[in-house]
What we know:
There is one protein chain. About 75% of the residues lie in helices and about 0% in strands. It is mainly α. It has one domain (about 5-210). Helix 1 packs parallel to helix 3 (about 50-75), helix 1 (about 5-25) runs parallel beside helix 6 (about 120-130) and helix 3 packs across helix 6 (about 120-130). The longest helix has 29 residues, at about 135-160. The protein is elongated, with a radius of gyration of 18 Å.
Amino acid sequence: MNLETILPTIGYVGIFAIVFAESGLLIGFFLPGDSLLFTAGFLASQDNFHIGYLSIGCFIAAILGDSVGYAFGHKVGRRLFHKTDSVFFHKDHLLKAERFYEQHGKKTIVLARFMPIVRTFAPIVAGIGKMEYRTFIVYNIIGGFLWAIGLTGGGYILGNSIPNVDKYLLPIVATIIVLSILPQTVHILKNPNNRRVITKFIKSKIPKIYS
């Protein structure tokens, strides 16, 4: 996915819509939030966007997206856990977000912003768990600010600081993607059962390594 080409095409409305969807709609878990925000910020440094409009718009979209996710979880509740998997819903993602919420509590709303999939389902889990909305919105604002303003601002500052940085944008974005999925990967590998399943899978696919 070439975000450098796509983002100027979809413009502010498209970017805000993606941020909104990934922040709290079930259909948004597969969207590229971290890399999108950073790349958009970088493009703002190249005069494709106004950094003020971009960062504030993404911040508002993130807050609204999480709030919709919270309201959805609060209304639908535990019925989601009995929902059949589909293209736009996987119960495993919901369970993963629930476990993360149980481990980290209220600060999950902030931490989840930087974790793909979990950030989509975390506000839904908060709504299911009956977290008070006044508490939720405080953490929602903090997380939305750090994520939306932080990543767009980081891309903008980098674009203005390093000459010809566009040559290095792809590896930088790839690094952001790796870092965003690293916590989940480490969490998965800590479980001995998961390690055995992964090892068994690797052995079945690449038998020569273990011959």
